[in-house]
Amino acid sequence: MADNEKNAKKPEAKSKKPNPVAAFGKRVVKFVKDCKGEIKKIVWPTPKATFKNTGVVLVTIIVLGLFVFLLDTAFMNLLGLVMNVAA
Q1: How many CB atoms lie within 10 A of CB 58?
Q2: pTM > 0.70
Q3: Cα–Cα–Cα angle for 66, 70, 64, nearest 5°?
Q4: Structural domain boundaries of the chain?
Q5: What is the per-residue pLDDT across 4-45, written as a single tens digit (0 to 9) for each?
Q6: Model confidence pLDDT, tens digit, residues 65-75
Q7: Burial of residue 57, with CB atoms counted within 10 A of its CB: 0-12 exposed, 13-18 middle, 19 or more buried
Q8: How far apart are the first and last CA of the chain?
Q9: Can you spell out the DSSP letters for 10-26?
């Protein structure tokens, strides 16, 4: 029982609250380190692959543009026929 009394009389160590500024600083440092690690993992395409992909994109844009133009022209002609018949 004497041991219990000694433990009861001792003041408990207060837990320190972490400094919010220091905690924020640690998070920022961790974020920057993680970003540097992720940037090292990036595999950049070769110039040849870049030009090839650019060509594919341009051809796709031209083909889709022509398709939309043809649909627009067809629907405008169809609408013109319907409007002339209705008038």
Answers
A1: 10
A2: no
A3: 30
A4: 19-86
A5: 555 555 555 566 777 888 889 999 999 999 999 999 999 999
A6: 999 999 999 99
A7: exposed
A8: 110
A9: SPPPPPPPPPHHHHHHH
